[in-house]
Amino acid sequence: MTDTRTLDQVRADIDAIDQEIQALISRRANCALRVADIKLEQVQAARERGEPDAEVVYYRPEREAQVLQRIMERNTGPLQSENVAHIFREIMSACLALERPLQVAYLGPEGTFTQAAAIKHFGHAAIPVPQNTIDGVFSQVESGECNYGVVPVENSTEGMVSHTLDNFMDSPLKISGEVEMPIVHHLLVAPEVERESIVKICAHQQALAQCRNWLDLHWPSVEREAVSSNGEAARIAATAPGVAAVAGDMAAELYGLDKLAKGIEDYPDNTTRFLVVGREEVPPSGRDKTSIIVSSRNKPGALFTLLDPFRRAGVSLTRIDTRPSRTEKWAYVFFIEFEGHLQDQNIREIVAELEEQSILMKPLGSYPRAVL
Ligand SMILES: O=C(O)C(=O)C[C@]1(C(=O)O)C=C[C@@H](O)C=C1
């Protein structure tokens, strides 16, 4: 049947639907408030049972992943599943903020891709707390100043962010989630700045590397300077007219910069993966990944021996990386990521075997696979 409603009629329908959606969102928010009360009651009961350290965990990544996954699965259009999930991401973010506003440390300053990743994962109701260094993010969460932290871990062009991996070696923090961000870089300048006046291009070293071919081709003789972050590069470009920055949309918006060239990364499917760190272990969501650090003696076949239990159990590895050991005791330190949860029987067996064969075996946490 053709739709014969007039513009006014359709708008009246939209108004009525909005009213219903709003009432439903308020009902949902009241449920979240009740969830918060129940969580508190459960912790009080646990303390009375003699568990003095029991603490309320408001943020539940496994539950959020399940909610978002289901929303995407049952979407029938016409909106795209990802767009619908983003809307619910924000609704859950606001509901969680009613229960307890989350402080999220991230590798700043404002305008970095890590901030964009933190917002993508936690939504806009979380309180972002920029840190100057990856170490700073870890220590804010370790000390309890912030509830969670977001750090870059791997780029599809440049490989692992070794500093993040090094932090995991000594930190008691657990991984509670992962975020994937497509990385699109632009060449940014302050408004009205002419191409001819650019004498220097600033960016984080990873961004300079990700755009190396493009910069070699278009700006071969202009000095490049690596600075602490893309956000910092954008801040410099906003105040120094001879300086351009390589950074993303968020930095461009934040510092009011113009795009002299868009999408300048050498590989168009350039993505960065971020990890969310927290103090709690995350229960299974049904679609999980696990990360561990494992180290073995320097002897022939050492890596094969460590990986063989995964092959036998048919568990897929999603990442393996090596870092130089920082103590003489260990010859190799491997970061291994795989599908499954530390509570799964087959993963428990693999971990037990690795504990026997290695000189160090540190689980970094199980967490839901990125949904968005
Ligand atoms: O189910 C919970 O534990 C809730 O707190 C509710 C809710 C939600 O809004 O759906 C909010 C925050 C949590 O991170 C997960 C889900």
Question: Could you give a quick summary of the protein structure above?
Answer:
Helix content is 42%, strand content 25%. The protein has helices spanning 7-48, 61-74, 81-99, 113-122, 134-142, 162-170, 205-210, 212-218, 230-239, 249-254, 302-313, 345-357, and strands at residues 103-107, 127-131, 148-155, 159-160, 174-182, 186-189, 200-204, 223-227, 243-247, 258-261, 271-278, 288-295, 317-324, 332-339, 360-368.
Number of strands: 15
Strand content: 25-35%
Q: What small molecules does the structure contain?
A: prephenic acid
Number of helices: 12
- Indicate the CATH class of the largest domain: Mainly Alpha
Total individual domains: 4
User: CATH-wise, what's the superfamily of the largest domain?
Assistant: Chorismate mutase
| SSE pattern, N- to C-terminal | HHHEHEHEEHEEEHHEHEHEEEHEEHE
Helix/strand/pairing category: alpha/beta
Global geometry: globular
Rg is: 24 Å
| Low-confidence runs | none
- Range of helix content: 40-55%
**CATH fold assignment of the largest domain:** Chorismate Mutase Domain, subunit A
- CATH-level-2 architecture of the largest domain: Up-down Bundle
Main location: cytoplasm
Pathway: Amino-acid biosynthesis; L-phenylalanine biosynthesis; phenylpyruvate from prephenate: step 1/1; Metabolic intermediate biosynthesis; prephenate biosynthesis; prephenate from chorismate: step 1/1
InterPro entries: ACT-like_dom_sf, ACT_dom, Chor_mutase/pphenate_deHydtase, Chorismate_II_sf, CM_dom_sf, CM_II_prokaryot, G/b/e-P-prot_chorismate_mutase, Preph_deHydtase
Domain Chorismate mutase: 1-103
